[in-house]
Amino acid sequence: MVLPFDILEYHQRIKGTKERMAEKGIDVLLITDPANMNYLSGYDAWSFYVHQMLVVIIDEPQPIWIGRYQDANGARATTWIYEENVIAYPDYYVHSDTYHPMDFIAEILTQIGQGRRSIGVEMDHYYFTGMALERLKKGMPNAQFKDASLLVNRVRMVKSDQEIEYMNRAATIADLAMTRGVESICAGRRECDTAAEIYYQLIKGTPEHGGEYPAIVPLLPTGDHTSIPHLTWSDRPFVDGSPVIVELAGCYKRYHVPLARTVAIGEPSQKLEFLAPVVLEGIQNVLEAAKPGMTCSDLEAIWAKSIKKYGFEKESRLGYSVGLNYPPDWGEHTASIRKGDMTVLQPNMTFHLIPGLWFDYDGIEISETFRVTEKGCERFTTYPQELIVKRESSILLNSSDQIS
Amino acid sequence: MVLPFDILEYHQRIKGTKERMAEKGIDVLLITDPANMNYLSGYDAWSFYVHQMLVVIIDEPQPIWIGRYQDANGARATTWIYEENVIAYPDYYVHSDTYHPMDFIAEILTQIGQGRRSIGVEMDHYYFTGMALERLKKGMPNAQFKDASLLVNRVRMVKSDQEIEYMNRAATIADLAMTRGVESICAGRRECDTAAEIYYQLIKGTPEHGGEYPAIVPLLPTGDHTSIPHLTWSDRPFVDGSPVIVELAGCYKRYHVPLARTVAIGEPSQKLEFLAPVVLEGIQNVLEAAKPGMTCSDLEAIWAKSIKKYGFEKESRLGYSVGLNYPPDWGEHTASIRKGDMTVLQPNMTFHLIPGLWFDYDGIEISETFRVTEKGCERFTTYPQELIVKRESSILLNSSDQIS
User: Fold this and answer.
1) Which of A22, A230, B134, B206 lies most in the core, judged by the most C-beta atoms within 10 Å?
2) Cβ of A126 and B49 within 8 Å?
3) pLDDT, mean of residues B124-140
4) pLDDT at residue B402 above 50?
């Protein structure tokens, strides 16, 4: 088995996690977020649709993986955890009215002497349900439960050089997928055909590095749906004169580099032509200013000032910390680039800066993922930072079935 | 706006939901499962990575959609809900340490006079977190909370003719994607290249009907990883003499038809050649027997008897109810085809029969999605039901960049 990181890097991550556990008075951390499970153990499989968990005990060197019986081989194949720390529950616990995996887990934890300790749970993370919380509490009546939401996510914020290298590979894939997707957009071709081209490239990756599934599917709102950032594609054809927003992320070893661009099919509207330079100038101003020591709130202020000159305000956040993740989100949920977020930028923090402007009937998105460096910041991708105008007005014959 | 179903079908679904609410003494149902939100309202967007909800009040004709401000246009664009029933929370509630969307929602529900009623929540569904439960309880101290897990899912189990039609379209896409994926598998080509081909076809769909993202990515375990059903692809090349399991689903209007096959690259192992007829006979026996009035447990008994002749037992379940869904699962979590599941088959129930056999170092999966008919059952897909043997032993020159 080849782990994506040196074993020492995993030990370092466990150490950072235990330090935060100690600060919060948590003895036993129950990790159900698949990204956090992966970060600490290497575990990587599409098994988060059933209950599973990584347990970090403050005075034990190795975490414990607990999951479904048929997934235990996955823990053996993808983690650095010793065999005796891989514990499986029988299949009759899966999607059952009677049995719940958290009953099993509570019993195991009690058996190994953790039933009376201070237990941290990821209260507001995906895949940790209200029922999971109640069954754990019922099964460990003498434990003290604490909210450990984002505890591991905060350890994840500053990336190692190896993590940055994986993000660089993801960036190359993002650039290629954006190129392929934009090439395929033209009036008369269907949205799903462009989504297929993007997906093909995202997964194929490069000859050296294959791609992985992104935590969010490519988003492709078009026409008046550009006012709705999270609509996915349809099988309707693109229309001449319409805008299309393409938001995608390259993914490598579960590390994401998102990238968004806005494409005008045919002549861009006057509004788009007016908005694009406003957004581009704002992005430029933020990227030129970002450096260690500034806060996320400072970055927002720079953007707000930049667009205010043109009479705009933006209510929604401007970006967020990004990296390792699983569906349904590639954001890390720690720092947001918005007013009042006092997170201080440090070298090797990574953000997706996505200053979308959405109105009632249209919108624009141009984004960059950047890394904070020692003295400033740098973009991951190289795709041209501009409003893209596709003046071809119809499909080239047969081109929808060609892969260039 | 064109809804995927007639407005009367949505009314029927609401009616079925309210009947079950009444049976359980639930006045107000808080729906956070994206599939259930879609089923009742039409809402379709990749916005389930933030908290959102559909509220069904037993004595109100229309449900209420509550979500993030920038997603409210999505509710207007994809649902039959009137404008005044679309309620948005401000962006500072998103991924915040201070504000939680459930505080906002509890306040809204209290304001509209629901604060002292019996409230059903989907306790064990994805995206309903432990924190969501606690904040709702805190915000509505005079309400009585009840578990409404699977309430709407049970309404979903028997499909309408229109739903079956969408599943037929998904089946066509599944067949095409399996064909394309299997064609691309050969020694020396990378797993990610085959995954890219499969994804391309899944999303492109047919000329008439574009495909959508499946709720689970294509699974492609190979070699000794065929013992691990939920590993995703890597960028390693396929190896001559290895087995590959391909599990995928076509998706149309969020309706899924899954399909799995096992492929031998080069000569199949003796074990695979022995296992394949055992699994195929078992599937055949189940499909020949399945009809209205039987229980899921009856189907399991037929399978168990069929494989026992050859000395096998299978601990994990044999299949599950399938249809409308969002990541991370296409299963409906209601009926499982396993011992003791007393769900009675009815016409237009739909199941994924996936009798995988997994051992320590290998495994086999051959599956069929079927619909219960008036007198028996029928498969959705037409892909040959067999162990697939690919005897070509190496890559055709350049073929990895061709799309046939």
Assistant:
1) A230
2) yes
3) 98
4) no
